[in-house]
């Protein structure tokens, strides 16, 4: 049985690049990775309250010009969105529980999970759980990390679907 590979990227990190000159490149890279067998999951902080109004945080993920639509247009798939509960007192535990839940739901292991985030705390927690986690900053961009992962993935597999 081949373990599934899971790619976790926050909604905000995707949106930051999506709205830049590298937006099209981002979606081509994400699509390539999903075709190489990665399941893509976007993470976002859980809203304080859920509404049915347009213009909320879900529009960026699921609306007409959303991450999901742009990725589909590039030939890829957004497998899901995971809302991480927020709390000033238990945030570390919330992150740990979210990562365990995600790994269980996607029937994978920490060694087959990759997280790219601009949150140092989320990267620290993920690394502690054995997840391949990379902090995104001016030295490590989302585009460069996705390129590296695509190269590793292609060299590690016999076929690029």
Structural class category: alpha/beta
Q: Unreliable segments (pLDDT under 50, ≥5 consecutive)?
A: none
Residues in helix, %: 40-55%
Instruction: Write down the overall geometry.
Output: globular
Major sheet attributes: 5 strands, parallel
Strand percentage lies at 15-25%
User: What's the β-strand tally?
Assistant: 5
Measure the end-to-end span. Answer: 18 Å
In short:
The chain is α/β, with parallel strands linked by helices. The protein is built from 7 helices and 5 strands, in the order βααβααβαβαβα. Among the domains are: 69 residues, no CATH class; 35 residues, no CATH class.
Describe this structure in words.
The protein is α/β, with parallel strands linked by helices. Helices cover 45% and strands 17% of the residues. It has seven helices and five strands, in the order βααβααβαβαβα. A five-stranded parallel sheet has the order 3-2-1-4-5, sandwiched between helices. Helix 6 (120-128) links the parallel strand 4 (113-117) and strand 5. The protein is globular, with a radius of gyration of 15 Å.
């Amino acid at each position: 049985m081949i373990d599934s590979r899971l790619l976790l990227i926050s909604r905000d990190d995707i949106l930051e690049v999506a709205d830049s000159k590298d937006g099209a490149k981002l979606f081509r890279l994400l699509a390539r990775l999903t075709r190489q067998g990665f399941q893509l999951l976007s993470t976002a902080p859980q809203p304080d309250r859920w509404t049915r109004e347009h213009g909320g945080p879900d529009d960026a993920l699921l609306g007409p010009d959303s991450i999901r639509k742009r990725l589909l247009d590039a030939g890829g798939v957004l497998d899901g969105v995971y809302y991480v509960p927020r709390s000033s007192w238990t945030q570390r535990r919330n992150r740990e529980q979210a990562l365990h839940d995600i790994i269980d739901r996607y029937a994978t292991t920490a060694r087959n999970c990759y997280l790219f985030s601009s949150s140092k705390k989320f990267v620290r927690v993920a690394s502690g759980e054995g997840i391949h986690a990379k902090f995104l900053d001016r030295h490590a961009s989302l585009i460069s990390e996705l390129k590296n992962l695509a190269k590793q993935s292609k060299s590690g597999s016999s076929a690029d679907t």
